[in-house]
Write a structure and sequence with these properties.
131 residues; Nuclear Transport Factor 2, Chain: A
Length: 131
């Protein structure tokens, strides 16, 4: 069985490639995201709300820690892209953005079961406000 680090890197690459069928295979049929349960397809829809408005959006792993015994992955992501349409509730200004996301994943049976995340929305707002 692949390590959590390998599974997670495959997951991020699948998101960056917009390979939603692979993402679906890497998550449980029900994923709890910030204390709310979603069917896998709805969880993926949440991701596409961020990726669709910025076609060049990429998730880059900055820090990744995996605890195989506890089945937990902790990661700091750098998210970069240029929003072309409304992005996370903000209107695009033609400029690229880079934001930080901190995420904890709980795995079960080799698949992502629970996600707890915090995104630097203040940093995003500051970059998307026209000066």
């Amino acid at each position: 069985m692949p390590s959590l680090t390998q599974i997670y890197k495959t997951y991020i690459q699948a998101i960056n490639d917009r390979d939603w069928s692979l993402v679906t295979n890497l998550v449980h049929p029900t994923v709890t995201w910030n204390q709310k349960a979603y069917p896998a397809q709805e969880y993926i829809t949440l991701m596409t709300r961020a990726t669709d408005p910025a076609p060049d959006l990429k998730f880059n792993i900055d820090i990744l820690l995996a605890d195989e015994e506890e089945q937990i992955v902790s990661v700091r992501l750098l998210i970069r892209g240029t929003p072309e349409r409304e992005f996370l509730g903000l209107k695009p200004n033609g400029k690229s953005v880079e934001i930080v996301e901190h995420v904890f994943y709980k795995f079960a049976e080799g698949k992502i079961k629970e996600v707890k995340t915090v995104i630097d929305m203040d940093g995003l707002r500051n970059q998307m406000v026209d000066a």
